[in-house]
Specification:
Length: about 325
């Protein structure tokens, strides 16, 4: 290319800028909400803030579906937008699980908890596990209480037998390398605090004990994903080692604004694969909600206690 005189360079740059300016500003005005949260299937909850028994607000039917999905309601009654007794008691159970005031009313704290992106595994399975009960509650003056542990297990305490304390893992072919690395890191964290060891499945063509992949919407295991936001991932109880990420969510390595750290989610979902259900301790890995842009890379004493009780370690 011929050399350009400084003058023509400046001229060209100015010309380019003039041409691009309208485009840039048009883009800016077209996306004034670039800082807004990504639309989520849980957004309907915002419109229900303040709802309580007796209300007939549009969206209450979706609240019933939400609570059904996570195990608080067996959805074999009213399909109406009507806040009935059964719904009120489901909301109270939810509030107990998340250490909210058990008023049965959708107060702002209840709504903001429910709206956070989360794991798709229900908090309650067949009414047999209760995140907030089970363990020791300590009375500490003035009626306030402090809980020692909140871990929970699957029904019948599903777990791996002693012959399966070494588990193999594998990935579906479409799993990105960054996700594989994140899962391997999370497996290391679990093996450092338990008797489990993990290694890649050596026999090609055979099924690993833990199989990780990315899926979207209905992917044939009876637990549909839901597009961006809402449910992020799910995993199965022993001895079913499937662990699925929702590929419609925005994934990251480390804390990235509006994205979810793959290792953080792996640590949680692998906890399910090992036999842990949800914990009501916000700092625990087994707490089911995940604010975007955050990481949780270490096991909490509650997670460690849970897995040790399950396997009598
Ligand atoms: C919900 O019920 C309460 C108490 O009955 C009432 O004060 C409130 O106006 C109702 N809200 C709606 C949106 O119906
Ligand atoms: C609800 O449950 C009852 C009894 O368990 C059953 O007979 C009925 O068919 C169920 N209804 C629906 C809509 O599933
Ligand atoms: C519970 O209610 C009390 C009194 O109204 C309030 O001070 C407190 O912040 C509430 N706690 C939660 C978690 O909503
Ligand atoms: C829940 O209960 C039903 C009916 O008793 C049973 O078929 C199902 O396997 C149970 N689910 C789990 C996860 O235990
Ligand atoms: Zn979970
Ligand atoms: Zn799945």
């Amino acid at each position: 290319m011929a050399t350009l005189q400084p003058f023509s360079l400046i001229f060209l740059s100015a010309l380019l800028l003039l041409l691009l300016l309208p485009l840039l500003s048009a883009h800016a005005t077209n996306s004034p909400n670039s800082d807004d949260k990504i639309a989520s299937p849980f957004d309907f909850l915002k419109g229900l803030q303040g709802s309580q028994k007796g209300n007939k607000t549009k969206g209450i039917r979706d609240l019933k579906k939400y609570l059904e999905q996570f195990g608080y309601l067996s959805y074999n009654h009213s399909n109406e937008d009507y806040f009935d007794d059964v719904l009120e008691s489901a909301v109270k159970t939810y509030q107990l699980n998340y250490h909210l005031n058990a008023t049965g009313t959708l107060d702002d704290k209840t709504v903001s908890t429910m709206m956070m992106p989360r794991c798709g595994v229900p908090d309650i399975i067949n009414g047999s596990n209760w995140m907030h009960l089970g363990k020791k509650w300590h009375q500490e003056g003035h009626g306030s209480f402090h809980t020692v542990s909140h871990y929970s297990f699957f029904p019948k305490r599903q777990k791996w037998p002693p012959s399966k304390y070494h588990l193999t893992y594998g990935f579906t072919t479409s799993t990105p390398t960054k996700a594989r690395n994140a899962v391997v890191q999370a497996l290391r964290t679990w093996s450092s605090r338990t008797h489990f060891t993990f290694g890649p499945e050596p026999r090609s063509g055979s099924n690993p004990d833990i199989l990780v992949g990315f899926y979207r919407w209905d992917h044939g295991d009876g637990n549909s994903f839901d597009g961006p936001g809402g449910i992020l991932a799910h995993a199965f109880a022993p001895q079913d080692g499937r662990f699925h990420y929702d590929s419609d969510d925005r994934w990251s390595v480390g804390a990235v604004k509006d994205a979810f750290d793959m290792q953080t989610i792996a640590l949680h979902e692998l906890g399910h694969n090992l036999g842990l259900e949800h914990s009501s301790i916000r700092e625990a890995v087994m707490y089911p909600y995940f604010p975007p842009g955050t990481t949780k890379l270490r096991l909490h004493p509650d997670d460690i206690k849970g897995i040790r009780v399950l396997y009598n370690m």
